[in-house]
Amino acid sequence: MTDEPRHESTPPKPAKPRCKLIGRDSNVFNVIGLVRRRLIDAGRPDAASEFTDRATRAKSYDHVLQLVFEYVDPY
C-alpha cells in the first residue's frame, strides 16, 4: 500500500460527434435538425434533447451556432 492520497477522477467528457453542415441548407431549423439527428445517431439522445431545447430558446442565429459548437464538431 502507498501513502499517496487517492484522487477521485472525473469521467472523461464524451468526444463531440462530427456533424456535416458545409453544403447544407443553413436555415436555422435545418441546422437544429441536423445537429439533433447527429447527436441521436451518436447515442446521445439526452444531449440531443438538451441541445434542441436550448437552440429553440436562443435569441439569435449566432447563438444557435455557438450552441452547435458546444455539442458537435461541425465540418
Report on the architecture of this protein.
With 75 residues, the chain is mainly alpha-helical. Helix content is 51%, strand content 5%. The protein has 3 helices and 2 strands. The chain has helices spanning 28-41, 45-57, 61-71, and strands spanning 18-19, 73-74. Strands 1-2 form a two-stranded parallel ribbon. Helix 1 runs parallel beside helix 3. The chain is elongated and about 60 Å long. The model has no long low-confidence stretch (mean pLDDT 91).
List keywords for this structure.
75 residues, mainly alpha, two-stranded parallel ribbon, 3 helices, 2 strands, 51% helix
Strand pairing plus helix content: what structural class?
A: mainly alpha
Q: In terms of per-residue confidence, which ranges show pLDDT below 50 for 5 or more consecutive residues?
A: none
Mean pLDDT: 91
The succession of helices and strands, N to C, reads EHHHE
Query: DSSP strand (E) fraction?
Result: 5-15%
- Gross geometry: elongated
Question: For the report, how would you describe the main beta sheet?
Answer: 2 strands, parallel
Count of runs of 4 or more consecutive helical residues: 3
Q: What's the alpha carbon Rg, rounded to whole Å?
A: 17 Å
Q: Tell how many strands the DSSP assignment holds.
A: 2
Helix content: 40-55%
Strand order of the largest sheet: 1-2
> What distance separates the N and C termini?
49 Å
